[in-house]
Structure of DUF3800 domain-containing protein:
Amino acid sequence: MLVPAPPNQLPSLSFYGDASSKQCAFMVAGGFAVSGNRINEVEDSIAAIRDDAGIRSEFHWSQYRGGNRRSAYESLIQYGFDLIKTRKAALHVIIAKFDGYNHREKAGDDRDTSVNRMYYQLFLHRLAAFYGRARRIHIRLDAGNDCKDICRMRNELCADAYKRHQTKPNCIVSIEPVKSENVGIIQLTDVVLGAIAAKQNAVAHTSPKKDLADFALRVSGRHSWASDTAPSARFLTVWHLKSRSRSP
């Protein structure tokens, strides 16, 4: 039985997550962590990028075709990495090799189940480990079957975080699915993760997506997405999960 939730006076942090390329050799999941007092500012900035470009639909990696939207998508990606560089947000990414991976530990398991497991590892060893002692954490995930299980695992995750990382009790206050069309930060996550997955899977796009993936890597300041960030990294972390172990 968990002890009472942490005091309400603790500052809040929201994590906006998504997953990309679960049908490919490498799956990429992750998202942006944003302090509660900055959420409106970030949402307004993303909306302004969309409005300035005259885009009525949501930003979405799978729908990107270049053309007159190229500048807006590049501005969105640039804005995301500017948030990281100015320490106004953090990006936490987990990459798992899904080729040859056993997605059926038990009846009914599939690739969506595996994505849920990857989310668990990311939330436990990044969100809880980094923020669970001093923040109330809210997790918002792009709705779909690949987050259905994890949205029901808050109690288990909090107990695990308390035991492994000495977090505040119930450090993760909520895990909920949201519709990406209503949340600009989820759209930002979708585009950035799509770009990372494209590079990691060595996708030879004949469409403008190749250029956008190259742009994202360039503005990130990294040479590739194929290696883990240093253990000391906090605002941009990349973790290649190499086994089913619960330890990074």
